[in-house]
Amino acid sequence: MKNKRSVIILKATKCFDRVVNSKNTKSISNSVFKFKYIPNKLVQTRCGLAVSKKKYKTAVLRNKIKRQVRMMMQDILTSNHVDIVVIVKEAYQGNTYQENKKLFIDLYNAIQ
User: Fold this and answer.
1) In sequence order, which residues have a C-beta less than 8 Å from that of residue 31 and are 6 or more positions away?
2) 74-87 confidence digits (pLDDT tens)
3) What pTM value is reported for the model?
4) For burial by CB atoms within 10 Å, which of 41, 72, 97, 109 has the most?
């Protein structure tokens, strides 16, 4: 039996744009990630993920980064009633997965 994910992925352009372009959007960042977030009225956290084609040329690399960041989200995120868009910066590639995960945790804890 599979465990249910505690994170809902923002896939619809309308939802994604609402988080990025809203007046109430708050932003926080470090060397590897940038979080844009707004409160929601749902029980669960919803997350979107942005990995730039300009910075990461090959689809293989972009997909690897997306897979790793989704795992970080799944392991860390709790239900704190926010919609988050995670923007991955170019420095992601220079660190190990564990270093990136620690930076993700630190940044996520800063928004609570």
Assistant:
1) 89, 91, 103
2) 887 666 788 899 99
3) 0.85
4) 72
